[in-house]
Amino acid sequence: MWQPALRRGRGLQAQGYGVRIQDAGVYLLYSQVLFQDVTFTMGQVVSREGQGRQETLFRCIRSMPSHPDRAYNSCYSAGVFHLHQGDILSVIIPRARAKLNLSPHGTFLGFVKL
């Protein structure tokens, strides 16, 4: 699902619905999901799986407009984390039937090694 926009080195590897860290280090991690849904609240959770455990790195929750023509809102979060080789990062949408806008400028996951 994740398409690399810029390839430089081999520090990250898309793996199904997640991203595997190949090069350990400190990263700026950022994520945004653009929702197009009338459900009262929508959100995202960014989690890391590695070293035998799963951990939530950050989460975001947004209220949604109730009118279908205005039911757009984005959830953006960012943070700096030490990531280990082999960690798998994924974005989880807690609502099973959430309506998302998957345009590249609306929904994305990004990393910058610091």
UniProtKB/TrEMBL annotation:
Keywords: Cytokine, Disulfide bond, Glycoprotein, Secreted. Pfam families: TNF. Its main location: secreted. It is found in: Secreted. The keyword Secreted applies. Residues 1-114 form the THD domain. GO terms for cellular component: extracellular space; membrane. GO terms for molecular function: cytokine activity; tumor necrosis factor receptor binding. Coiled coil: none annotated. The keyword Glycoprotein applies. Gene3D superfamilies: 2.60.120.40. One of its GO terms (biological process) is immune response. CDD domains: TNF (cd00184). Belongs to the tumor necrosis factor family. This is TNF superfamily member 13. The gene is TNFSF13.
